[in-house]
Amino acid sequence: MFMRISLRTASSVAAPGRRDVRVASPHNGSHPHNPELHDPKRNFIISQGPQETRVLIKGKCHCENMAFALDWEGDPPEIPARACDCSFCIAHGGVWASNPRSTLVVTIRDPALVSKYAFGTRTATFHVCSRCGTVPLVTSEIANHVYAVVNVNALVNVEESWLRRAASQFDGESIESRLARRQRNWIASVRFACA
């Protein structure tokens, strides 16, 4: 469900050149006074410009120590959800999504509760919440630039029908090929902030 907002009332969320801004939350009811509809932690914004539509997707670990906002293309977006077959991802429910044209902002309330884990080729860092055990994202630093993927199981405002689930298998991939794939496919605009 979508609620249209005129640019006069939504000028603070409308980007320059955007014609329409809609706020949506698949988790709320149709009641016009639903307080969840006005909760910025739960809603996402869909904006339409002359050439594109973008969606702000939100995610978090279970205890909300780590949260993220991901700017995504499409209305509704088609989100590739790749289930990695490595032992760590299987044990932690790692199903990863990325869009190289997206922007990811990660907010951390207590950095002391974030554990970083790398194994195998040590080219990826899993960000694990020490409090709740959730792994909401993975980063890879390549040539002094950080790339990321997010765990679709940590998304809070996404319809299941938007996910395009598939298995992935990277055994035997060389480190050079792996890093090149991440540069092509992972989120290239990543920013970390403390809450």
Strand content: 35-45%
- What's the total helix number? 2
Report strand order across the widest sheet. Answer: 1-2-3-4-5-8-14
Q: What is the radius of gyration?
A: 17 Å
Shape: globular
- Poorly predicted regions are 1-43
* Helical content band: under 10%
Oligomerization category of the chains in this entry? single chain
Largest sheet: 7 strands, mixed
The ordered H/E elements are: EEEEEEHEEEEEEEHE
Mean pLDDT: 78
How many beta-strand elements?
Answer: 14
Measure the end-to-end span.
Answer: 30 Å
**Structural class of the secondary structure composition?**
mainly beta
Could you explain how this protein is built, in words?
- The chain is mainly beta and 195 residues long.
- Helices cover 9% and strands 41% of the residues.
- It contains two helices and 14 strands.
- The chain has helices at residues 87-92, 175-185; strands at residues 2-5, 20-24, 44-48, 53-60, 66-73, 79-84, 95-97, 103-108, 114-117, 125-129, 137-142, 145-151, 163-168, 189-194.
- The strands form two sheets. It has a seven-stranded mixed sheet, with no helix packed on it. It has a seven-stranded mixed sheet with strand order 9-10-11-12-7-6-13, with helices on one face.
- The longest helix has 11 residues, at 175-185.
- Residues 1-43 have low confidence and may be disordered.
